[in-house]
Amino acid sequence: MFCRNVLQTAAQAQSLIALTGSRVTTYFNYHLPRYASSSAATNPPSYPGLPPSFLVVGGAGAFGSVVVDYLLRAGAQKVNVLDLKPSSFSDKRVESFVGSVDDVKLVDKAASGINTIVGCLTPDIPTATWNEFVSVIVLGTQTVLNSAANAGAKAFVQISSIGVSSCYVETINGKESDPLPHMRDYISPYDLTKRVSEEMVLQANSWKHSSMRTAALRPGGLLNGPRDYALRDIFDKSLVYYEGAPLAYIYGRNVCHAIALAASKLQDPASPAAGKAFYVAGTPITGGDLARALGRKLGRKLKNLPPPVLSIVGGLSYVSHAVGMVRAPHRTAAIPTARFLAISKYGKSFSHDLAHQLLGYEELWSLDEGLDLIVEEYKAGQAAANK
Question: How far, in Å, CA of 160 to CA of 177, rounded?
Fold first, then answer.
């Protein structure tokens, strides 16, 4: 079913895995807990034309579980979850399929009878190996696309990233019409694999043997809860690692809103949203300002790591990474800590005009409101732990 370009893309992904010399395994941020807010402030609006059934691939992960919760609140009649661990939802509308996207029969079963597939395929970014980036984001997407089309799904919504524009290139008020970097110019395996998988999804919109319509969403830095990798050390250690340039951050339920809108629009065979990618990036803010905003809401005084300490940590991370790539490339994080922190040097902001025009998208929660809800979740968790 794959067209020639998609086959070439998949072959590139297989080549990337070959560089690591490692076996394909699949992860969906499996060690991060589910977002657990029950606040009425997180309830979605009504979506005319919302599909009755969804499969959320990676639906037990940090963001995927937010998507499942949102779709249930929006009125979905059935939500299947495919992940390495069982879904924690007790709602009778949720069916959990436990296993890897390497298991084609399992993916086929999870996609059977489902109207819309939502791909939330991302490993834990700071710790993921090259193998995990490729096997989860690229090869996982390849498998799910095939199963979805074979099952007769009507729509496929991919969670891509602003990283397709490269997190190591400044982008101010970026638009979907702006050219993306050449494949060889990407620095981060996350950015590269998100770009490859996004192209696969958009090309699937024109498959001759399938009527499935596809779209990709490009969120900024996702903020879902206190265990997000961008927020963990602020909550746990009260640390501010860097100031940096403004980077687009977005409260996760705004992306869920965009998912529901896209899924609804793609029900129309003539939808102008089909085959397109959309920036839903969020609000630009520096890492330091984000940390201090949380500090104020928590009533804490945060500690800044001195630049010399950061320089030492950065240098050691490059040495450790180089040694790891020689000794055990299949177990070494693909992105050294210093390179991960270097993202903060490049400003990233994007226009939502196309998403507004074709999807009717507007942010439902401001970044400040999202942070309030995340702090509410954190305090509720602390209170429960102290009982």
Answer: 16
